[in-house]
Amino acid sequence: MLCAGWAFRYVQLADGARQIQRFLLDGDLFSSLSIFEDASHFSVKALTDVRICGFPRSEIREKCYGDRGLQSAVAQSCVADGRDTAKLIAVLGRCSAEQRIAHLFLHLMERIAARQVIRDRRYPLPLRHQHIADAVGLTSVHVSRVLSLFRERGIVVLSEGVLEVIDVRALEGIGLL
Amino acid sequence: MLCAGWAFRYVQLADGARQIQRFLLDGDLFSSLSIFEDASHFSVKALTDVRICGFPRSEIREKCYGDRGLQSAVAQSCVADGRDTAKLIAVLGRCSAEQRIAHLFLHLMERIAARQVIRDRRYPLPLRHQHIADAVGLTSVHVSRVLSLFRERGIVVLSEGVLEVIDVRALEGIGLL
DNA sequence: CGATCGGTTGATATGAATCAACGTGCGTGG
DNA sequence: CCACGCACGTTGATTCATATCAACCGATCG
Q1: What chain B residue is nearest to A75 in terms of C-alpha separation?
Q2: Where do runs of H (alpha helix) occur along B23-67?
Q3: pLDDT band for position B40 (50/70/90)?
Q4: Could you report the per-residue pLDDT of B145-169, keeping only the tens digit for each?
Q5: What is the distance between the alpha carbons of residues A47 and A66, in angstroms, rounded to a whole number?
Q6: CA distance B10 to B18
Q7: Interface check B119 vs A, CB under 8 A
Q8: What's the number of CA atoms in the CB half-sphere (13 Å) around residue A114?
Q9: Which parts of the protein come within 7 Å of strand D, by CB position?
């Protein structure tokens, strides 16, 4: 579990490309489902300084049998993960570059806002263009172009690790699934 | 649960596009995780004649508490689903058209072979080009072109609901993750 | 017999990748 | 303290993969 900081879960492809599966925020398990797997098929990398804590899988599994609350919590975590993952498939399969990035931002905004108060529509977002690219299947060059566009059109500005959302409506309009 | 026949799980996007998340074979749950969700966010459609049977979610959940075998089976099903889903994300995010289709074929071949004896490397595969397109994020026109290429190169031939695999090695070579 | 559906093929358009150059800020070592 | 190298972002030119548009064909079905 990631206790504090930012990280991401990803896989490295044979040709060196990297696909980011999920950004991890404080309180997130690296992967809920991996509680039930003995071998992980992903890697995790920190984006900021982090604090993590670990649990033996077998212990969690064991506790699940006796504890309905825990079992239900684990299940809900898996479901949330699965829902996001399913949405990501649709985004990668069917959306344009602008839509992909809009979706990523909306998704992260929701998760960040669930953890902290947002002032002035400014969301902490310690990502390089390359991370965004690896998350939504684009090139960092193209991410840069799209972000320039968003900036020009007065939609969002990402800079210095902060995402400033100027026109949420426009962003949601682009991101319509 | 799909007891017999072929089906697929998908979502319909706002612009009418369709993203297929998973093809369902006999014995598959529509979605393992949906045991723990009360609202489904996907649709299912049959590809062939099918037989299905249903269970009340609450009953399954209830049985899980007492029955380690069932709980473990459900967990394994969720894990398998999650693993395939994660792989699909990498494929959609980072692979070319040929690689996407090769992956889909290899993935389905594996699942089909787990259920029935394969003779002459001929796999039953009742998909239209449009289904392949909707599964891997391409156009049916482009799927047609890629399949022509595969045919010319003597790799696989898909026709009349049967996938004939002529050169598995070549297919695996293309599909390398 | 005509209509519809699925597949093929060709011409063209377009979105994103690639290649390349440049600027800027920053850390590091001299 | 300076100079250099490096990571990151930006921008322009060009290429490439895939989409789009359109025509055609064969099979199937009412």
Answers
A1: B36
A2: 57-66
A3: confident
A4: 999 999 999 999 999 999 999 999 9
A5: 36
A6: 7
A7: no
A8: 10
A9: A 128-130, 140-141, 144-145, 147-148; B 96-98, 137-139, 141-142
